[in-house]
Amino acid sequence: MNDHKIFLDTNIVLYLLSEDEAKSTQAENIIAKDGIISVQVLNEFASVASRKLKMSFAEIREFLSQICMICPVVPMTVDVHFHGLRIAQHYGYSVYDALIIAAALSADCTTLYSEDMQNGQMIDNQIVIRNPFV
Q1: Range of the structural domain that residue 90 is part of
Q2: How many domains does the chain have?
């Protein structure tokens, strides 16, 4: 069993579609390490892909179906929700980022890859946030 499990923030998945070849390649390499995502990541991806990338819902569904075949998906549960609220209050993250952190903790991950969260921060003595693009 792998004792170093990684979790992916939405921006890592979005970078798969980036025209920035370095970031796109880095995102591919991270996802290939058996990254885990959450329903919150799927929701955020769909929102950004629809609004900013102008993808159709059919394109979004197809893309996310492929991602779900590669990455295990942590469900949004009531426990994850309330844990996320505690993280938001304690660490000062937005509720949406805190929900991703809570899902990563529920999956027993040790690393959360994110470009947007505080690089190097340890959460609940279990998971460290890493920016793979620095």
Answers
A1: 6-130
A2: 1
In this predicted model, what pLDDT tens digit does every residue of 103-120 receive, in sequence order?
999 999 999 999 999 999
Kindly state the tokens that stand for 59: 């394109």
**pLDDT tens digits along 37-68:** 999 999 999 999 999 999 999 999 999 999 99
CATH code, domain with 14: 3.40.50.1010
Q: Output the pLDDT for position 3.
A: 66
CA angle (74, 67, 28) in 5-degree steps? 110
Cα separations in angstroms, 112 against 55, 56, 107: 27, 29, 11
Residues of the chain with pLDDT > 70: what percent? Answer: 98
Q: What tokens were used for 62? A: 């197809």
d(CA 81, CA 98): 9
Torsion 57-59-65-70 (CA) sign: negative
pTM: 0.93
Give the H/E segment covering residue 99.
helix 95-106
